[in-house]
């Protein structure tokens, strides 16, 4: 083994030979739709198979050839202090990533690689999405070994090069979702996104449809036929029809939500391991992520408009190595508070206790916010009431419009009143809590020493009325409290700064 | 060397603040900042003034109807606003933090503890160079205030401040 260390060329490794097949299939999947669209769009398919098969074969060959080239020129190596990755044929890129800079090692199995039994290894450095180092497609065993080696090297235990580390040590489960919980969760994830997707697809592939989607007259003809008949059936039938349509819509929304949830969170498991919180989830795309606890910057406790009525909450972390992808750092998607408590403890944070000194935001701020939203609505209503009769708008329509605006203004006032009663923040010895929101309130828990900067901002109105917005710099997230009385904002800032300057940030995040 | 630079900063501006409290007076920027902002505003308003002159010479509008308001606004922006902006800005270099205050209409007051500084830039644009000024930029890991800029410092003072702050930043060993 010492010989191998002396001759570095020996250590260079390639990804699994199967991986170029996987890459070829993946790129085909992307290019395939375009090629099919081209063949159908240009009417080439009517010319017979002679014109269709050769382009397809050429596509297949090219895709395989380029994937093979990319595979041939990709190699990686674990040296004593860093990972080196070299790739590219014409323009070669050699990258070195020191172990200390690696925040996280993620293993990902998308559908197609999974069919071939391949895994992707992603080294998150905090550089953000594109620039992350990936090793595409090795066997799961090799991926696990890579992760273990990197972790061991990172924590200073130098294993001989090429040696694989022992597998995962004992871990205790913090949270898991069974099928029943998953199904309940899915029901609350009601989503009508399927219609957006269908609409988008219809726009993309409208040449495949048997009728012209954008021809208004055709639609009128299409609807006028049965619609006319419906009208003859009378009011009752129309009402039944509308109810049926709504029912179908609701059912589709439920099914979409359920499907998406099961795909994403099937087999969700969160474990507390020596290296951090380990999360595994996914039905077709299985993902396996480890988040070191000391890198957690803040927690977000979220809920939804309806799920809060049954006490369901979700917990996600704000981490130093946060991808832009949303939901990426959800550690508890859907649970009751008594299940969330232990997870919060495991992250080293704490939920607010019973004796926190909660503070409200300034009442003046709420009044100003309400007026700022309500006054334009009132002006618009007055304008409509004044000009409407002159323009000959029917009084019934006019009344409806004005009533709508009045209702909106009332809603705004209700919201501000609710937020004045329920939005609050508190400081304890180690944390800063901020609860805010109307229909789906959210609790942010930030660690005082992990904050980066404190800013107090005031607009012209706020300066006159004596309140301010407090922005706290969080690595990988954001935290702001609006409408805090100025003196209190300054007091919070002074307290937080005193906590911060005691501890150096790089020491906090050292493994 | 860095320590002497830090001492130099303290002597130069007689700021011996150990804690950037809210009541303490702010250190003003270098007076040349007003001139630099004026020059920048002149460059920015030039196209509008030129446009107004062309419109005036075309004779489509009553004499001065467009030119005079444009000139008045430009004059206000060039003479008055930079001065007020200068007075609205300021900073405090504490023992372990930097406080930056700015904004005429929308006021902001930011404190960056040195322990959270990732790296430091001293930036100098062409106009700043003409007046011997520099901008000190502190980068933090936070998404909000990822970089906090303090313009209008004398260039060598900005460099000295950078050294002083760097002395505080305990770097991770590479």
Distance between the termini of chain B: 22 Å
- Work out the helicity level of chain B: 40-55%
Gap between N and C termini of chain A: 27 Å
- Share of β-strand residues of chain B: 15-25%
Give the ordered list of helices and strands of chain B.
Answer: HHHEEEEHEEH
Number of strands of chain B: 6
In the predicted model, the low-confidence regions of chain A spanning at least 5 consecutive residues are 1-9, 157-168, 322-327
Multimeric state of these chains? heterodimer
- Separate helix tally of chain B: 5
Give the structure's gist in a few sentences.
The complex is a heterodimer of chains A (511) and B (174). With 511 residues, chain A is of the alpha+beta class. Chain A has helices at residues 2-6, 18-41, 49-72, 111-115, 140-154, 179-188, 193-204, 216-233, 235-265, 337-346, 363-387, 395-422, 460-465, 486-502, 505-509; strands at 75-78, 82-87, 93-98, 104-109, 119-124, 133-138, 172-176, 269-273, 276-281, 286-291, 296-302, 313-319, 330-335, 359-360, 424-427, 431-436, 442-447, 454-458, 467-474, 477-485.
Could you explain the architecture of this structure?
The complex is a heterodimer of chains A (511) and B (174). By secondary structure, chain A is of the alpha+beta class. Chain A has 15 helices and 20 strands. Chain A has helices spanning 2-6, 18-41, 49-72, 111-115, 140-154, 179-188, 193-204, 216-233, 235-265, 337-346, 363-387, 395-422, 460-465, 486-502, 505-509; strands at 75-78, 82-87, 93-98, 104-109, 119-124, 133-138, 172-176, 269-273, 276-281, 286-291, 296-302, 313-319, 330-335, 359-360, 424-427, 431-436, 442-447, 454-458, 467-474, 477-485. In chain A, helix 2 (18-41) packs antiparallel against helix 3 (49-72) and helix 6 (179-188) crosses helix 9. In chain B, strands 1-2-3 form a 3-stranded antiparallel beta sheet. Chain B has a 3-stranded antiparallel beta sheet with strand order 4-5-6. Chain B has 5 helices and 6 strands, in the order H-H-H-E-E-E-E-H-E-E-H. Chain B is elongated, with a radius of gyration of 20 Å. The chains are: A alpha+beta (511), B alpha+beta (174). The interface between A and B is medium-sized, with 36 and 29 residues.
